[in-house]
Amino acid sequence: MGKTIVIGNASGYTWDQVKYWVNSLKKTDYRGDIALCVSNVSAETIRKFESEGIMTFAYGNKNVDGSYSLPNDGAAPHVIRFFYMWLVLDKLKGYDQVISTDVRDVIFQKDPTLDMPEAYNLAVSSEGMLYKDEPWGNRNILEGYGPFFHNILKDKVILNVGVVGGRYEAVKNLFLNIFLMSINRPIPVVDQASYNMLIHMMYNRDDVWFDPPDWAIQLGTTPQAVLEGTSGDLALNIKLGNISADDYRKSYYGPQFNYYADAVRDEKSREIFSIVHQWDRVPTLVDAVKVMYND
Predict the structure, then answer these.
(1) Coil/strand/helix, residue 291
(2) Which residues of 53-66 are buried (b: 16+ CB within 10 A; e: fewer)?
(3) How high is the pLDDT of residue 295?
(4) Which secondary structure element, helix H or strand E, spans residue 239, and what is its range?
(5) Are the C-beta atoms of 161 and 190 separated by less than 8 Å?
């Protein structure tokens, strides 16, 4: 394996919101670089990131106190992050592999570097549901890209843009494509819809590694989050009676997990997931994560 960089975006976040991401990664065997694109952030927070050995790239307007603020230019922070992550990667160069994740609700349990088969250039992680079965995603595709493309994607699996990995050039180019496809759309938060449009319709499936074993789990659509949790669109719809619990169970085919031996593990294989996304949506995990990865 070559040189890897883990990169994320922390617009509007404080150290207390990012520390679980940073501290969990440092507890693994990962020894590559860590980078954050930041805005809407104080000078103190930037200094804290840098003191933790994180390459920090601030964007937006620099204020007299050293803080940075993001101008209201019409692009949502969810979308603009992909432009800045692309810009940072294009500037840094020299990496063989890039792992990009959301920051506030992601922890690492193992080195996330992928042992990628030669044929693949990108690694993606699904939510274990089809678009037509998940209300927020289904609506997002329809509103972002209209009925024609919605009719095509509704029967495709939802890929979560909050966890992406792969070879340097492939990930860098994907980021730019997501940004370019997401600006001037009918709705502001359309990054995940654009990502799914790209992967499902414009990328050769043979180039993409779908759900590498034990690499990443998206907890937001798992039964522990949907049936026991209190946040997320699916959980809300079930609580309101818009979707029955039985219909949800029939539509979810993703991995089940258990938390034991201080780790989120695949229920069947008992293997530890390298990346755990949306841990804050599972009530039984919140306290455990905060204890394990606090300062």
Answers:
(1) helix
(2) ebebbbbbeeeeee
(3) 78
(4) helix 233-239
(5) no
The amino acid sitting at 215 is W
Could you give the CA distance from residue 127 to residue 255 in angstroms, rounded to a whole number? 9
Residue 198 half-sphere exposure, CB side, CA atoms within 13 Å? 25
Contact of 232 with 203, CB cutoff 8 Å: no
**Cβ count within 10 A of residue 23:** 16
Q: Specify the pTM.
A: 0.96
Q: Quickly tell me which residue has 């997931």 as its tokens.
A: 273
pLDDT for 284 equals 87
d(CA 74, CA 248): 35
Q: C-alpha distances in angstroms, 231 versus 168, 281, 283? A: 34, 6, 10
Contact (CB, 8 A) for 68 and 39? yes
Site of tokens 């952030």: 41
Degrees to nearest 5, angle at CA 34 with 65 and 179? 80
